[in-house]
Amino acid sequence: MREIRAGLADVARRAGVSPATASRVLSGSGPASAASRAAVLAAAGQLGYQPHPVARRLARGTGTRVVFAVRDDRADILLDPFVTRATAAMAAALDPYDIGVSLRRIGLECAADLEDLAADRGLAAVVLAGHDRALLSCLPSGLRGRTAAIGAGGADVDSAAGVGALLTHLYAAGRRRIALVAGPSWLASSAPPVAVYTELTRAAEMPTRVVRGDFTSDKGRTAARAILDRWPDTDAIASVSDATALGVLQTLADAGVRVPDDVAVTGFDDIPLAGAAHPALSTATHPVEQIAAAAARAALGEAAPIALFPSTPVFRATA
Amino acid sequence: MREIRAGLADVARRAGVSPATASRVLSGSGPASAASRAAVLAAAGQLGYQPHPVARRLARGTGTRVVFAVRDDRADILLDPFVTRATAAMAAALDPYDIGVSLRRIGLECAADLEDLAADRGLAAVVLAGHDRALLSCLPSGLRGRTAAIGAGGADVDSAAGVGALLTHLYAAGRRRIALVAGPSWLASSAPPVAVYTELTRAAEMPTRVVRGDFTSDKGRTAARAILDRWPDTDAIASVSDATALGVLQTLADAGVRVPDDVAVTGFDDIPLAGAAHPALSTATHPVEQIAAAAARAALGEAAPIALFPSTPVFRATA
DNA sequence: CTGTTAGCGCTTTCAC
DNA sequence: GTGAAAGCGCTAACAG
């Protein structure tokens, strides 16, 4: 263990090559003869050489962090379990790349926010969530090629399949008057679940019962109340968010409605505590960590920008 | 909007001073006459100058990211809601500093891991969680002065007060045979709750009933089972974690034990969904986001290293 | 395939 | 108080 950390120059000297050559083999780019490659690698090993990430990034002109920009109108969106999970997953996934992650909310009207992001030379890439269809196609030029999205058009969960499976299960269990607590209409990812729901409901020749939610449990409470008032004979409530479903569960319990006997309930996402709720929530489970990591890597150009991840139904007590 | 971003040299030229002077006023350090300060500021404003964070960090020799190192023996600790919340909070709090955060687990035996951290020149600071008493006092020298802790000895929640308030409430409600699901014994932060519990139990002249947990809901399930078996007349179970309390709740429900009629239950932390559980969990609420942000700023030397945050009991349905 | 020569953009001694 | 100059540690043209 040396007191002074070894630099590239030390490695090069020891290997008997120029710094440029050492750089080429150590950074993996550029040609190098087998001989010098071996010499450099050996020298680096002996000296315990660790490249200086900041110097490297400055020379390359690439940034050192990824910002996770969450587009939403609620100020507390950054406390949302999905957001915190995704953030942590990225922070863990990018650690080996020597890249840190920052979390920031941007408003629904976010042109200026995106310009800010594009102007920040410290940024390696940005991961965007909460976008609508239009947003991805009109990113500032400085962000093109180094932006990835979580949700529709990016690393996404196959929500159509997941919600479809849940609804099919409800129908198979004899439920017919199924209501849906959907996502906000400005969000691109809200569409597919509504589409499957509509399709299946039409196929069953039943009228659709859709209420808009926002992924919070508060909204789940009010939505359930609205559904109970408006369509008292509802026998199942599907939500596109577990938090919302837990809110629904609460309202139903307070109203003396038995779950699942009177009304079945399903969530979406399988947050860590969905199974710990009582009655345990039936929902669809998603590899949120993988999705977030995929988006982060995609933003860095290390993975495909578009990927669909499975949504697997998990049936517990509520449906 | 210029195509080429303005650099320090541009600002200096426009202000009619040397780059050195411009640097002094813009970076806030070093002397500068009122006149040149004004000129530089004006020029910077007109040019829309934004310092290059990476170049700045390289020149200063400081790193560009903070790693949140969570010490635990469970591989899935990084999925823990507390960890994800804290990570996200830091990622949001450090965004304005142009510093990203990375998340990494380190083992209980973590000397080597800490050396790795100390050797990484890309790191601005590290935030440590899951430490025991000894760890903080024997950090590698390269980490001293740029490490902060979450939990005992760092930015901590006043768990003694919080658990004390919860237990006092239980006693006031007539509970007497109270069991505690504590934290793991290797963790420094596990001690205070056990201490208050022991003290209050002794004062009530009752025997202590302590089971060790690990903050998971799985452990809550097994702990509840153990308590029911060993001390069947238990009339209250206090946990130092909400996830654990939810596990307790599940086991009690499965065993046909009514909550809170037969057994009262309390948690700790007030995770976002504690209130959405049914019956809604009584617990103590903590400013986790503030705690994490304080630790992160402390690590960067921007805040006091030690701070105690309030633990406020919130009584819902289970106690 | 390799070495030389410039930078990347900012900070910081060190004289003046 | 200010400027000139020397880096921070590495990468990337460009010749050879």
Please describe what this structure looks like.
The structure is a homodimer of 319-residue chains. Chain A starts with 7 loop residues before the first helix and ends in a 5-residue tail after the last strand. Chain A folds into three domains: 8-51, Orthogonal Bundle (434 Repressor (Amino-terminal Domain)), CATH 1.10.260.40; 65-155 and 292-298, 3-Layer(aba) Sandwich (Rossmann fold), CATH 3.40.50.2300; 157-287 and 309-314, Rossmann fold (3-Layer(aba) Sandwich). Chain A has helices spanning 8-15, 19-27, 34-47, 53-60, 81-93, 111-119, 133-137, 159-172, 191-203, 217-230, 242-254, 288-299; strands at residues 65-71, 100-106, 123-129, 147-150, 155-157, 178-182, 210-212, 236-239, 264-266, 283-285, 307-309, 312-314. The first copy, chain A, contains twelve helices and twelve strands. The model of chain A has no long low-confidence stretch (mean pLDDT 95). With 319 residues, chain A is α/β, with parallel strands linked by helices. In chain A, the strands form four sheets. In chain A, strands 2-1-3-4 form a four-stranded parallel beta sheet, with helices on both faces. Chain A is elongated and about 80 Å long. Helices cover 41% and strands 16% of the residues of chain A. In chain A, helix 5 (81-93) packs across helix 12 (288-299) and helix 10 packs across helix 11 (242-254). The longest helix of chain A is centred in the first third of the chain and has 14 residues, at 34-47. The structure holds a DNA duplex (16 and 16 nucleotides).
